[in-house]
Amino acid sequence: MNPYSEIIRSKQNEKVKTLIKLREKKMLREARGQFLIEGLKELREALGAHAKIIELYYCPNFFQNSAYTDLLQDAKNQGATLQEVSKEIFEKIAYRENPDGLLGIGETWSHALEDLKLSKNPLLFVVETVEKPGNLGNMIRSAEAAGADALIICEPLIDIFNPNVVRSSRGMVFNLPICTTTNENLRVFLQQNNIQIIAATPHTDHMYWTVDMTGSTAIFVGNERNGLSDFWLKDQNTQKVKIPLNGKGDSLNAATAGVIVLYEALRQRAIASSLYG
């Protein structure tokens, strides 16, 4: 017996239709201020970060252990409305392969640059006009793992609340500050906060390990097809660095390139801390 509500079994149910629209339509996510969060890990990260979960849809047929029912109770305790659906309905509303029976509607939050709080010696990861949700999610996940203060998206083409961004970030979208802005606004922000610009690009002779990144630093990568725009590459304050390629390929995935430079910054900072800390 379902202790929470009547089980939804009809594909014509309005809630089912809304879930599908939230998955597919950016404009609806923006208008409602809501987005989808699917999966035990992602929802656990959301609840741990005190993100607002409005509704949580679930299907026990997919549950693997007691962690799933524990999460239901935690979500209910934090104010979420619980709704059971049939196996057929959950397969329709799920947006990932091999679903685990949990899908929530979360409340969006502001990701404006002016809301970003910088640490004393910030390390920022900046990506310009990223096009693919999966790539953006991987960048969020990698930047969080590397200990970056924030990920900043210039001239965004996709929204951070795209379900595939949330999924590919493995829930790190809830743990890493993320901002969206224009190139012009970011340049002013970096100048005002004395943050140096390091651009990963093949169009330079300077290797990435030769540049000092122990101070306040923003590491830039471009989009998947064209790399960084001339707005940044021709900026007199931009320091261009490259990652050596010894195979036949002429470029790296943007997320990979950014992470390599991020970890070099961490290496330099760790050494500086041991020497002067």
In short, what is this structure?
The protein is an alpha/beta fold and 277 residues long.
How would you characterize this protein structure?
The chain is an alpha/beta fold and 277 residues long. It has two domains: 14-107, 60s Ribosomal Protein L30, Chain: A (2-Layer Sandwich); 113-276, 3-Layer(aba) Sandwich (Alpha/beta knot), CATH 3.40.1280. 37% of the residues lie in helices and 18% in strands. It contains ten helices and ten strands. A six-stranded parallel sheet has the order 7-6-5-9-8-10, with helices on both faces. The protein has a four-stranded mixed sheet with strand order 1-4-2-3, sandwiched between helices. α4 (66-77) links the parallel β2 (53-58) and β3. α3 packs parallel to α4 (66-77) and α6 (133-146) runs parallel beside α10 (254-276). It starts with 13 loop residues before the first helix and ends with a helix. The mean pLDDT is 92.
